[in-house]
Amino acid sequence: MSDTLDLLADPIDLTAALVDVRSVSGEEAEIAELVERSLKLHAPHLEITRSGNAVLARTNLGKQRRVVLAGHLDTVPINQNFPSRREGDILHGCGTVDMKGGDAVMLAIAALSQNASHDLTFVFYDCEEIEAERNGLTRIQRDLVEWLHGDLAIVCEPSNGTVEAGCQGTMRIEIKSTGKRAHTARGWMGRNAIHGVGEALRRLEAYEPRQPEIDGCRYHEGLQAVKITGGVAGNVVPDECTLTVNHRFAPDRSVQQAEQHLREVFEGYDVTVTDFAAGALPGLHAPAAQELVAAAGGTPVAKLGWTDVARFAALGMPAVNFGPGDPTLAHTQEENVPVDQITGCFDVLKRFLLA
Q1: What helix, strand, coil percent values describe the chain, rounded to 5?
Q2: What is the rounded distance in angstroms from the CA atom of residue 85 to the CA atom of residue 242?
Q3: Going by C-beta distance under 8 Å and a sequence separation of 6 or more, which residues neighbour residue 70?
Q4: Is the bond preceding residue 106 a cis peptide, omega within 30 degrees?
């Protein structure tokens, strides 16, 4: 491997070079050092700092607005898809989608950012693919939060080269049912806790999710049973049962409103919230976001999953997802990206960000 990346090379080749650096979550030191060295060589105009295995760089041009571009350097574990290989117009390999194509576009823009029309901040961070407390943005927000502030955040996660605005929130709850043990030969002497969640399952089956439109983007909420546990033995009426439900809620609802809604849906049951993350409003009314949409062309769409745009929204910034690759291929052995999406995303950001 070369000591530095050629940030002025074709972003397709830059993507392949990044993919060929192993960087499974928790093992990003090599790629972080490579990114830092490359930025110092090819973009000496940038202010650069480190936070663990995250690399942060920014211009200080005195522009009216600042745009933050963020991308994680880590990947899920390699699954017989390393190193990269190119077949025609398709680049294969671990991280081609999630999200070294987006990182490559960011690095290519960084190399040219002395001519930026906005001040730019680049955040290459670690440990996105594992537990939230290890996510590099958590540490940066705690120690260097001023590096995350701007007028618009672009998280270069895969979005098929389309602007995906905001993101939905997520909440997981447990619904507990209690009963009374008995021998199944005399079941009437007990109370079956598994049967007790039957009404909750019927409510789930009949549930009609909202599809609100926000800033012209249609979100599609969801409410799904994802796990059920219970049972003692093959001849015992069970006295405990837990039903786990996941709720994806549009960003016009707060976490508190989402919780209240679930308690109403499952009224009469013992409901415990076990995990949650707020969504992010699309913020497409912001001037910088409108400029990006104009540069990208087409129509922005809602992000139905949860991404780190929510972290930027919590800081009071509009935030979007925009990057090459089909997100449905993320984390799969077949991960691959059409090279024209890498080029297309680079061209859009160049039109939007460079004078």
Answers
A1: 35, 25, 40
A2: 46
A3: 122, 123, 125, 137, 153, 154, 155, 156, 308, 312
A4: no
CB atoms within 10 A of CB 132: 13
Q: What angle do CA 168, 174, 176 make, to 5 degrees?
A: 155
Enzyme catalytic residues: 74, 128
C-alpha distances in Å from residue 104, one per residue of 18, 124, 165, 248: 7, 11, 21, 31
Beta strands in 262-342 (DSSP E): 270-277, 301-302, 319-321, 336-338
- Tell me if residue 122 falls in helix, strand or coil: strand
Q: How far is CA 280 from CA 83, 138, 284, 303, in A?
A: 35, 17, 11, 9
Per-residue pLDDT reduced to its tens digit, 41-69: 999 999 999 999 999 999 999 999 999 99
d(CA 39, CA 45) in angstroms, rounded, equals 9
Residue 292 predicted with pLDDT over 60: yes
Query: Residue 243 forms beta bridges with which residues?
Result: 175, 228
Question: Other C-beta atoms within 10 Å of 208: how many?
Answer: 7
pLDDT attached to residue 2: 73
Burial 9-41 (b: 16+ CB within 10 A, else e): bebbbbbbbbbebbbbbeebeebbebbbebbee
Separation of alpha carbons 308 and 94, rounded Å: 20
pLDDT of res. 1: 57
Confidence class for position 287, pLDDT limits 50, 70, 90: very high
Element (H, E) at 180: none
Averaged over 272-291, what is the pLDDT? Answer: 94
8-45 pLDDT, tens digit each: 999 999 999 999 999 999 999 999 999 999 999 999 99
Chain centroid to CA 343: 22
CA dist., res. 84 & res. 342, Å (int):
15
